[in-house]
């Protein structure tokens, strides 16, 4: 019952909302470090990671290339051909760990969904992928709940801040520096990012 | 084994970081609605809520007044006199529900801690309150983990986005409007707040 974990990944010019504080090269290295953290957690949780991207990159990880850049179209071409249970998990969840992923894949419902920050969807586990299709971007959590309902699929919403916390902006670095233990946290520290506590709030700062 | 749930609460001029978008009266009503949501969830989880504040307010809820405004001093005067297990939970967690609180109070460790956003601590469950003291503000999650370690107490960190999501800023309203089901969500909607989806992100807006 080890599901494949599909991990959409964009190696070139990722995480553009971090452009103000990271160069393109730094963003690419950081995104790859986060991917490695997610892959590591997925393996710990007995999933088989498969990277879904628009181009191959230099890595020993199992990769699938898709001809179209659109995430929804790519995944919706894969799902109907998939015979076994599947996990779709985003590559920007460096706080993912074995326990949180196991909570997702051990649901007793037809599906499990993990909401991301701001209405997104960070992970979907589907027992029978033929019955579901994805609709990412915007308020995708609500859309996915609706798609599941329309398909008659029971859904468990997984209450995990580790899988809820996608890293999109520098404010999110605070969570990674506090709770992260993997390569992406180490890379941020290598770049000089650290926590500063002042007047009751923890902020992130960068040494140059 | 029903623990008391201590809920620190400030009825006058709360949530000042919302001052730009809510009047003082609105902030007071909103803070009270969030408190009601937390109280309701605590009761669902078989806890006995006790509001800890610097002044009594008009309510049938069980209240304890403390002479000093400092949260740490107030709680640290209560803990050594407490004979049974106790939950300390913040009043600004309107996504709290029965399941998430039960995960906290059913820990098999000496304590359970729920990290809040930005390094804070949103809930602490202590089996033997005499052995622990609190140190809120700033990076309190790290401080509480250290205090527990120094006291030789085993700790479970509860991975819950519902209890992780404290509502401090208007950006946080997005989570409340998506995942909330209680009085504080209803009050925000009454004030005209609603979700707007544009270019891939969900934002909050207010009708006037």
Structure notes:
The structure is a homodimer of 208-residue chains. Chain A is α/β, with parallel strands linked by helices. Chain A has a single domain, classed as Spore Coat Polysaccharide Biosynthesis Protein SpsA, Chain A (Alpha-Beta Complex). Helices cover 32% and strands 21% of the residues of chain A. Chain A has seven helices and nine strands. Chain A binds chain B through residues 99-100, 115, 117-120, 137-139, 141-142, 159-165, 174-175, 178-179, 195, 197, 200-203, and chain B through 99-100, 115, 117-120, 137-139, 141-142, 159-165, 174-175, 178-179, 195, 197, 200-202.
How would you summarize the topology of this molecule?
The structure is a homodimer of 208-residue chains.
Chain A: E1 4-8, H1 24-44, E2 48-53, E3 63-65, H2 71-78, E4 86-89, H3 98-105, E5 111-115, E6 121-126, H4 140-150, E7 155-157, H5 161-164, H6 173-179, H7 183-190, E8 193-198, E9 201-206
Parallel strand pairs in A: 1-2, 1-4, 2-3, 5-7
Antiparallel strand pairs in A: 4-6, 5-6, 8-9
Helix pairs in contact in A: 1-7
State the gist of this model.
2 copies of one chain form a homodimer. By secondary structure, chain A is an alpha/beta fold. Chain A has helices at residues 24-44, 71-78, 98-105, 140-150, 161-164, 173-179, 183-190; strands at residues 4-8, 48-53, 63-65, 86-89, 111-115, 121-126, 155-157, 193-198, 201-206.
């Amino acid at each position: 019952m080890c599901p494949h974990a599909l991990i959409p990944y964009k190696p070139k010019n990722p995480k553009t909302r971090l452009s103000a504080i990271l160069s393109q090269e730094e963003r690419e290295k950081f995104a790859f470090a986060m991917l490695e953290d997610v892959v590591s957690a997925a393996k710990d949780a007995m999933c088989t990671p498969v990277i879904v991207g628009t181009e191959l990159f230099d890595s020993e990880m199992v990769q699938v290339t898709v001809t179209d850049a659109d995430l929804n179209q790519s995944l919706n071409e894969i799902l109907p051909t998939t015979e076994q249970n599947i996990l779709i998990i985003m590559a920007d969840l460096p706080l993912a760990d074995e326990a949180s992923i196991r909570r997702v894949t051990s649901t007793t419902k037809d599906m499990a969904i993990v909401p991301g920050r701001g209405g997104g969807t960070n992970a979907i586990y589907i027992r029978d992928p033929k019955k579901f299709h994805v609709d990412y971007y915007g308020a995708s959590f609500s859309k996915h709940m609706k798609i599941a309902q329309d398909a008659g699929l029971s859904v468990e919403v997984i209450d995990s801040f580790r899988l809820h916390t996608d890293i999109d902006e520098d404010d999110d670095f605070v969570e990674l520096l506090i709770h992260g233990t993997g390569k992406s946290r180490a890379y941020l520290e290598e770049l000089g990012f650290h926590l500063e506590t002042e007047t009751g709030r923890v902020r992130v700062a960068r040494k140059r």
